[in-house]
Amino acid sequence: MLQAPSGAGIVPDHLPGELTFKFTGRHQTWRAPKNVRGVTVVAFGAAGDGLGGRATAVLPVRPGEQLTIVVGGNGYKSQGGGGRGGNYSSSGEFGFGGGDSTDIREHGNRLSDRIFVVGGGGGAGGGGGGGSSYAEATALKHRTWSGWKEATHGLLVLKW
What we know:
single chain; 160 residues; mainly beta; 1 helix; 4% helix; elongated; disordered N terminus
């Protein structure tokens, strides 16, 4: 007959954890586990013509508190998450849209509920207007920053 190991059935109040949030186009939520009073956040804003920002913080939370996570979308040619980049130029090309910010919100979904924000990359003017060309902007997607492969969309990691 098998016996349960000593201490079986005893569950700690919380286990260390890590959760990665990627761009979905929707708000996402996370609820703090029992006895968790702080989280480490590592986040990236989405790319536009340039790379999005990067920020790290330790945020206090209350056990059971729900946070809203908004991960930014990229500024893909004229359909930028942060807004359409430029108008048609004489060459008939749109600019490159700016990337969305990535943020955490507390007590609601309004911009005023933000407690942590990382900016998205800026946009560029149209092809004939002196801004970066689409080929140059596409090449930016493959740059690295501190070893992280730029995926163009934002990213947010919570650790507790």
